[in-house]
Here is the input.
Amino acid sequence: MKLKKPLLFGLALMLTAGSAITLSACGKSDIKVGAQDFYAMAALSSVNYLQDEKAPTGVTTGRLSEVLAQGTNRPESVSTQDVDSLASYMDMFRDMLSSDTNKYFTNGQVTQEDVNYQDYNFKMTFTIPTNDGQQDLVMYYNEVKTDTHQEVDENEVELEINTTLNGILVDGENTYTVEGMREYEKEGNKTEVAYEFKTYSQENPKDYVKIEHEKENDEIEYEYLIYKNGVKASETSVEFENERGRKSLELEFKANQTNLKYEITEREQNVYQVRLKNKANNNEIKEIFTIKPVQNGYLFEYSNGYSEVV
Here is the structure.
């Protein structure tokens, strides 16, 4: 099963490129990530990665490219992997801008109809569009408070609440073990929230995805870690900024010891400028091009006249 839009927030193939994401919102942020939003995003992100890992050898999971300009070639500084990854990151970026965080999932209680899952209290149902209709996934889980602490210090209330989550994610005949935790701290007008979510392959529990999220006032951070056979395999960092009404996304791959950085800025509605930088050489700009969403994907237009739909 290959999802048309695999991840909530469009995280898409972000995890196949590697995985540790740092997201920060500067200035007034309109990004709101609640516990259920985070669990949904983390579950779908992780499953998509683990599904790709199970794909048979020789199966291509990258995007197809349609060349629109003849007589020129894609700039040498931009690889096919770059283009595939950027197209996937664009899904995330556009969904962030829309702030439509709950269009793929609903929350509910486990009922008598869920015969095999009576050990769990809650369920989250995902309905994801695919090329031939839709795909339904269900996460059954328990979330319980493990610690609550409250005190008053100089007339300010300090509150700390910790919870843990455990359950399974069902995707047709495939199931995945999930674990999570949430920490909430409030002191006066300041709040800090931290989440952690792990998804394990049941075929090889040493292959798993760990996603962490922290929010302190207007600063939002994510970290994605991919483990293979119990060892961290790769990571990627992303910085999201919303400053003076201009939104930008900065990507930094840490897999395969690459030194590339991508800065995506919304120049006008549905037109995004990409600066490809070389981190090893003082962020030297290697290439500047634009990306526009079109019916069949994304239109990449390069400075040398070459263009392609990915």
About this structure: The chain has one domain: 8-309. Residues 1-32, 56-62 have pLDDT under 50 and may be disordered. The first strand starts at residue 66 and ends at 67. The CA atoms of residues 147 and 204 lie 32 Å apart.
